[in-house]
Each structure stands twice: as C-alpha cells, then as structure tokens.
Amino acid sequence: MSGVADVHVLCASADVPEPGSRGFAIDVGGETPLRLFVVRKDGRVTAYRNSCPHTGAPLEWQPDQFLDLDNSFIQCSIHGALFRTEDGLCLRGPCVGQSLRALSVRVDSGRLVVDLPVEDRGSGTD
Ligand code: FES
Predict the structure, then answer these.
(1) Has residue 93 got a pLDDT over 80?
(2) Signed CA dihedral, 114, 6, 3, 23: sign only
(3) How far is the CA of 11 from the centre of ligand 1 (A)?
C-alpha cells in the first residue's frame, strides 16, 4: 500500500527548457540527498531518480545535461545507455530492457513539483 506523498517544489517550470533537463538533490531526511532529474520534451515533463540501472551511477555528463546531443533520448554518461524520455525504458546499452525509476512530477502554479511516496523518503540511494 502506498502512503501519503511528500511534496517537494523543485523549481519554476520555466527553468527546465523544452527540450531540456535539470538535475536536483533534495533532502528527504536520510543520510544522503535524493538525486533526481527532470526532462521536458515534446510538451511532456517526466522525472527519474538519477541512478543508472546498470551500476547505480549518476547519468549526467555535465551538470543538468541528461539528454543526448540531439535531445532524443536520456543518455548515461558512463557507458552510453539510451533511455526513452517518456518512460525511462533502456533501448540501447548494457541495461537494455531495464528502466529508470520514475517519479511523479507535475506543474503546479508555474512550479515543478515532485510527489515522493513513503518508500522514497529517507533514502537518497537505491
Ligand atoms: S553506468 Fe549507465 S550505462 Fe553503465
């Protein structure tokens, strides 16, 4: 059973370009912050934990750069895995068929807000 979500305001919605991405580390009460990132592409906003299913490493190759060069896919900087932006499924690379861990994100009064379920509280790592 899923409990009540913790609500975290990330930034102004306009702070994530179309197409584009931005990374965050938020305090969830654990020893380490929760690392996540938001992607905006084709008018849709999605959020994932910043942890590659291959090794658990963070994905970005530069701060806030989670997309490949033509902004088609999320790309892991370590071994180049490519993930669909809409659902985080890996289509190419060492973790094909696995998915990034999606988080619930929404636009609320011009801000990007993530809702963390109980199981994501208190842990910044998988
Ligand atoms: S750590 Fe991401 S593809 Fe290997």
Answers:
(1) yes
(2) positive
(3) 27
